[in-house]
Structures are given as structure tokens and as C-alpha cells.
Design brief:
Number of strands: 5
Strand content: 15-25%
Structural class: alpha+beta
Shape: elongated
Largest sheet: 5 strands, mixed
CATH class of the largest domain: Alpha Beta
Helix content: 25-40%
Number of domains: 3
Number of helices: 10
Oligomer: single chain
Radius of gyration: 35 Å
């Protein structure tokens, strides 16, 4: 009982009852115990009598009144197991109505059970595992470039955003003023779309960027040439990008291998990196 009174995980109500009984065990009267533990004398009288009648079991709560539960643990287990291990006929996943029809429970009850167990049959996510036997080694190479870049080198993370709408407002915007946000007209003119190419330096966060009307291998090669021009000649350049086919096009690989300095171009399958191209090696 003394352990229950001191234990952090004990409920406040149970700890209070234990302190009452421990004080009563010292031979104190109800009024003195009430003053010591900070409750009323009637509370002391109640729990002293409960303890004398049922000992430790008397300190627990009585069953709450109300309608008994109508959904049994077996029914809940059946819903959870069916959700995880089966699918309805002519459907890809369970809905609340289909599960209710199967189990005889209401749709709202099915929803509460799913919410309690964190089940969302209507949602799905995707994944892809590389079948490249050297995938792990290649991941180590790419992650190593991010975490421990080589000396006298620049590591750039490259990607592109295609189909960017080029819009202009029909009238000039009103500038922001104290207490008033910038205001723009609701109508605008469309000027087609553009593609944004960007290379972020993983060490200092600086970005080399350019826009092109399209995002073919020709434009990607032009962007790589811009990177080559913007990085000092005494630094190696490591470019990390995804496995997009444009990045591995013969136009790009031919240009890489045609550089007068040693060039390394490796094909990386998987979501982490497409290839690590060393554009320039001192």
C-alpha cells in the first residue's frame, strides 16, 4: 500500500485512499487523518469502512452504472483480423458499409474500431525496391558525398521542376504598406510554361539555377555546362540527381566523356540517386 501511495503511475484517487488507510493505521481519528491528507472527514470514513470490509479490493472503484457494452472483444478481433488479412468480394479494400454488412455491426461501430486501432483501409502507399545487386554500395557512395564531401570538391544536388506556369498579372500590384498586405489583381495573362533547373551546394546551400522552355537532354546538358562555368576550375564537381532518363541520355554521357579531364559517370538505379557525375576532376 505504501508503494501505491508513492508510485508515480498510481492514479491520484488511489494514492489518496492509500494515504488515508496508512494514516488510519497509525491510530489517528478520522478528523486528524482528513486534515493530514487534505480531504473531508466523510471521505476518510467511507474508505476506512471499505478497507475494513474488503481490504485492498475495497480501495478500487465500483463498476460504473450504465448500459453494458454490446460489442464483445471477439467481435472487435474479428473486425481487425478481417481488415488486415482479407478483402471483400469485387473490391480492392474494405469500406465501413461492407465491413458492417459482413460482421452485423453498425458502420459507425466499424469506424470507431478502425480509429482505435489506427486502420485506414481506403489509403495505400507505394514503395520500390531496387533489383540492382550493387544498390547498397551505390547508396553508400551517394550518402557519403552528402555526409563527408571530398576535399577540394563541390557536391551539388540537382533536380528540375517542369511545367511551371509563366503568368503575369494584368495590372501592377499595389505594394505592401503598414497594416496592409500586397494586393494583386485576380486576372492574369498566360505565357506558356517553363522548366526550372537547379543545383544546390550541399555544403553552403547556394543554388545555381536556369530556366528553359523544355526539359530534354539538350537543356540538361546546357545546365551542366552552366554548372561547369560557375564553379572554380580548381574544384572537382560532383553532381547527384535522380534516375530520370534525360540525365542518362547519350547526349549527356557523350558530353561528359568528351571533356578533356578525367570523367566518371555511373548509372544509379533507385530513388536515392540516378548518377554521380564528376564533371571535372583536377
Amino acid at each position: 500500500m505504501a508503494r501505491w501511495a508513492r508510485r508515480r503511475k498510481s492514479s491520484q484517487a488511489l494514492a489518496l485512499r492509500c494515504r488515508i488507510i496508512l494514516a488510519c493505521g497509525e491510530g489517528l481519528d478520522n478528523k486528524t487523518v482528513a486534515e493530514r491528507v487534505g480531504c473531508s472527514a466523510n471521505t476518510v470514513t467511507k474508505w476506512r469502512a471499505r478497507f475494513l470490509d474488503a481490504r485492498l479490493d475495497g480501495l478500487t472503484e465500483d463498476p460504473r452504472p450504465g448500459r453494458p457494452a454490446t460489442v464483445t472483444a471477439e467481435q472487435v478481433e474479428d473486425v481487425v483480423v478481417a481488415t488486415l488479412e482479407a478483402t471483400p468480394a469485387n473490391a480492392t479494400h474494405w469500406s465501413r458499409s461492407k465491413m458492417a454488412e459482413r460482421t452485423g455491426l453498425s458502420a459507425s461501430t466499424i469506424g470507431r474500431i478502425w480509429k482505435t486501432f489506427g486502420l485506414k483501409p481506403h489509403r495505400s502507399d507505394g514503395f520500390k525496391l531496387s533489383n540492382d545487386p550493387l544498390f547498397v554500395d551505390k547508396v553508400y557512395d551517394i550518402v557519403g558525398l552528402y555526409l563527408d564531401p571530398p576535399e577540394s570538391a563541390v557536391v551539388l544536388s540537382v533536380d528540375e521542376k517542369s511545367q511551371v506556369q509563366a503568368l503575369s498579372r494584368s495590372q501592377p500590384a499595389f505594394p505592401m504598406m503598414p497594416g496592409m498586405p500586397e494586393k494583386r489583381t485576380h486576372d492574369y495573362f498566360r505565357h506558356g510554361v517553363t522548366s526550372l533547373f537547379a543545383a544546390m551546394n550541399v555544403q553552403d546551400g547556394t543554388v545555381i539555377a536556369s530556366t528553359h522552355r523544355r526539359h530534354r537532354a539538350v537543356e540538361f546538358k546546357q545546365f551542366l555546362q552552366k554548372i561547369d562555368q560557375n564553379v572554380p576550375n580548381d574544384l572537382d564537381v560532383h553532381v547527384i540527381c535522380d534516375n530520370y532518363s534525360t540525365h542518362k541520355h547519350p547526349t549527356v554521357t557523350t558530353w561528359l566523356h568528351a571533356e578533356p579531364s578525367p570523367v566518371l559517370c555511373r548509372s544509379y538505379a533507385g530513388a536515392i540517386a540516378g548518377w554521380d557525375g564528376v564533371l571535372r576532376s583536377a
